[in-house]
Amino acid sequence: MTDTTAHDNSGPVLAADGKPLKVSLARALRRQKIRALLLIAPLLLFVLITFIVPIGDMLFRSVENQIVQETLPKTVVALQEWDSEAGTVPEEPVFAALAADMKIAVAEKTHTRLGTRLNYEMNGISSLFRKSGRGVKKWDLANDGPFKDKFIALDKKWADPEVWVTIKANSPKYTPGYFLNAVDMQVSPDGIEARPENQQIYVTLFKRTLMMSLMITGSCILLGYPIAWILANLPMRQANLLMILVLLPFWTSLLVRTSAWKVLLQQQGVINDLLVWIGLVDDANRLVMINNATGTIIAMTHILLPFMILPLYSVMQTIPETYLRAAKSLGATNWTAFWRVYFPQSIPGIGAGSILVFILAIGYYITPELVGGTKGVFISNRIAFHISTSLNWGLAAALGAILLAAVLILYYAYDKIVGIDNVKLG
Amino acid sequence: MADTANNDAFVEFERVQKSYDGETLVVKDLNLSMPKGEFLTMLGPSGSGKTTCLMMLAGFETATHGDIRLGGTSINNIPPHKRGIGMVFQNYALFPHMTIAENLSFPLEVRKIGKSEREAKVKRALDMVEMGTFGGRRPAQLSGGQQQRVALARALVFEPELVLMDEPLGALDKQLREKMQFEIKAIADNLGITVVYVTHDQTEALTMSDRVAVFQDGRIQQLAPPDQLYESPENSFVAQFIGENNTMEGVVTQISDGKALVQLDGGELIDCKPVNVTKVGERTRVSIRPERVEYNKERLHADAHTLKAEVLEFIYMGDIFRTRLRVAGNDEFIIKTRNAPDQTRLKPGEQIEIGWMPEDCHALDA
Ligand SMILES: Nc1ncnc2c1ncn2[C@@H]1O[C@H](COP(=O)(O)OP(=O)(O)O)[C@@H](O)[C@H]1O
Ligand SMILES: [Mg+2]
């Protein structure tokens, strides 16, 4: 034994210069690490800007609620004294503060935005603010008081305690309101409660989105598995040809493909015509296959199928035929050999394909929009509506955040049940 | 036909042909008959159709023509899983998603054998290959040699009477391969199973087999026990393929009761044993093993024909000396001598005379 081994038992291993080996190693690796970091820095920045920041912004918007405090700062302070559960209208000081705030808001034209925002919580507030804005403009703050009666004269709604409850409830900087709204709940003077039945849409939509995405994933597995199997077992030339057919959808516009389904599936469409001609379906009862859930599932299965086939194919390609032969030589029938030996080894491909298809499906927008009708639209269509039509970005953000959470939870569940190591793209 | 068939025959190939593409025959007229308990090796260069024969026997390929019989009944129409033939694949084909014990249990499960009996059999099979403690591991956690043992145990665990092995030791290093050769042979003998073994390694074939079938180009060139194969090759392909050989070409000048005189192309005369030459004037290739060449005059017959030789190279190989000579214009003539205390070590440049017993020099087809 050499004398260096004597150090091993007495303390940390030392490098030739007497410094602990760990320190020397860390120093030796540091330069390398910095270089690596610099090399990926542009990419990292890009990902940060285009990916992390928008998601962060979305999460922030789903709870952010500064508009009430910013537009009506004095009123918010004055309302602190007021008991929102008493069922009475606030006293003069609050109205005076409101008048002062409104004066500034009108000058800056921010009161209509506030009205729009508060309208999400209570119908009619938007017009109340617009109307009051026009009135307040003419007032002289120093001499025209008291303002309580003047406000009520402008619009009777100011005498409605509900309006004040809404304003007070929304005065904190952050609100759970969007999230509650996104799960069909609301804050009322009695606490958190379900929205009126005719306004409950989001939970149904979430459930439908999840269910239909699962069904689409399921039908992609059913259709994709045999195709991938054929692809993996065909001789090279034929396999390549078939592969082109599988990839063909990628080369045609999504809109064209979706519209094609409209042509095929509508009641006067090709498939119904064919069924009627064969006699399977009565001419009077043609099948409704478009503008409903069926249409969405059919069209989206078609569109997402390649995302199932490709990972399945690449996994299946790595399973040598000798396994099946070995199983059969050991006495297994064709089915047993497939089910006990081949199938388990293809599960990583099913896993990868399912995750891809499911995550794509759950956020899909264009196809449900075109062929989904009312019964086949997804939550993403609602998000798009709130972003571009109703401009309720907070609610859109809350819906998006819930969708993101749902995907992450499912991903986690998948990891626990199947194991994420069991996902293979090739 | 039936009455002439060998009653002892367990595995029979009768006039079997196989073509994959309908244009070329990969197996041409294969006839083979094996008694129960025999260890038969198919030996031949790569592409000679060995695997194809094995696959036809296992049922993964169908014979284009001919009959394959197992225990007297034709198995042409029996699917692989009903043939009850154990098989060891070259890359082992252990199921990666199952543990070793599960792999061994698989053939028993598909045979609907009860749990306790299954466990007992799995344990016995694993113990037999000295892998008893590895039942809980996955194939990927084993070394090549260990996987090989498990593959063997799996092919044997359901007690098949016939076991096929396709180059089972091909992926192992030399030392391990030699160890496994002995183990496989010992296990096969112990269990009394019939084995068809495929290899392209002639040492393996010679050391393990009861009989060796030398394949070339879809035909069996010779089917014989190892010693016969080595000492009496029936044609020049077998002579070339098995072991090392010196060959010289010439013409038969005299032939009588088991002796032939061959005049080499350089004019020299040598004594030979005619193997597949029949008449005077026929061209022949004579073949002589390096260890049967003698240069010590005292050990040669007085009337033996000798050839002049020049020593070109002397290689010390430990147990033997390997000397390269120039003989009758052939620079690659090798002789091997045992490293014994009284052995003379030839030096390059030395002029010697060599000869041999006429029965060691085979006159084969040209
Ligand atoms: N599945 C197959 N399809 C077409 N040709 C094959 C197939 N398997 C083997 N061959 C051809 O048959 C010949 C014999 O092959 P094989 O039986 O594998 O030989 P070996 O096992 O002796 O090396 C080779 O020329 C090979 O190319
Ligand atoms: Mg082979």
UniProtKB/TrEMBL annotation, chain A:
CDD domains: TM_PBP2. Its main location: membrane. Keywords: Cell membrane, Membrane, Transmembrane, Transmembrane helix, Transport. It is a multi-pass membrane protein. The chain crosses the membrane at residues 36-55, 210-232, 239-256, 293-315, 347-366, 393-414. One of its GO terms (biological process) is transmembrane transport. InterPro entries: MetI-like, MetI-like_sf. It is found in: Cell membrane. It holds the Pfam family BPD_transp_1. Residues 206-414 form the ABC transmembrane type-1 domain. One of its GO terms (cellular component) is plasma membrane. Belongs to the binding-protein-dependent transport system permease family. CysTW subfamily. This is ABC transporter permease. The lineage of its organism: Bacteria, Pseudomonadati, Pseudomonadota, Alphaproteobacteria, Rhodobacterales.
UniProtKB/TrEMBL annotation, chain B:
SMART domains: AAA. It is an enzyme of class 7 (translocase). Residues 11-242 form the ABC transporter domain. One of its GO terms (cellular component) is ATP-binding cassette (ABC) transporter complex. Its EC number is 7.6.2.11. GO terms for molecular function: ABC-type polyamine transporter activity; ATP binding; ATP hydrolysis activity. Keywords: ATP-binding, Cell membrane, Membrane, Nucleotide-binding, Translocase, Transport. It catalyses: ATP + H2O + polyamine-[polyamine-binding protein]Side 1 = ADP + phosphate + polyamineSide 2 + [polyamine-binding protein]Side 1. Part of the ABC transporter complex PotABCD involved in spermidine/putrescine import. Responsible for energy coupling to the transport system. The complex is composed of two ATP-binding proteins (PotA), two transmembrane proteins (PotB and PotC) and a solute-binding protein (PotD). Belongs to the ABC transporter superfamily. Spermidine/putrescine importer (TC 3.A.1.11.1) family. This is Spermidine/putrescine import ATP-binding protein PotA. The lineage of its organism: Bacteria, Pseudomonadati, Pseudomonadota, Alphaproteobacteria, Rhodobacterales.
